[in-house]
Design a protein that fits this description.
About 30% of the residues lie in helices and about 20% in strands. The protein has an eight-stranded parallel sheet with strand order 1-8-7-6-5-4-3-2.
Amino acid sequence: MAPIISPSLLSADFLHLEESVKMINQSQADWLHIDIMDGVFVPNLSFGFPILEAIKPICQKPLDVHLMIVDPLKFIDPLAQLGVHIMNVHYEVSPHLHRSLSAIRSMGMKSGVTLNPHTPVEVLEDILEECDLVLLMSVNPGFGGQKFIQRTLEKTRKLRRMIDERGLNTILEVDGGVNAITAPLLVEAGADALVAGSYVFGHTEPLKAIDGLKALCR
């Protein structure tokens, strides 16, 4: 089965976001990944709701929203109202993760939880059943174009085993340093979905870059 491909708009040309979204519409990409950063949890700022509101009417792909912020729950209602497909919160800022994921699901969105590179997958032992998606960061969150952390391959294998042993449908997504070299390794390790930013939007032919990722099989 081909992996889910979710190009990250963070790596697009901010002066031409409409063109980038329309390119994604025409591609084989499955989702559009949106990174929302607050400059507190991560050392950078990115998209806010005005950008999301502008993108949503023209985007024909489900929105895969990754909240790198300290207080993600206050945005459940606005994201649900926008028709976001996946709301993804960080384990590291979620002291009441079960409540958070339940609240996301109650608003009709898929519940996602992200783990930073230093956070072991074992922390999900008692919450995995509540996760529609788990996103493993294979770089430190906050900036695009970083080098892939090799340890992520073993984390992916561990999480794959946890999901399969419980017979769950949880989607295993990986974000950071995804390219023609790392993508096949991640898919072989058990990744269901790949977030690709610089590799897609920095490619001379973005549509072909997406096609190549989509052609991989697990």
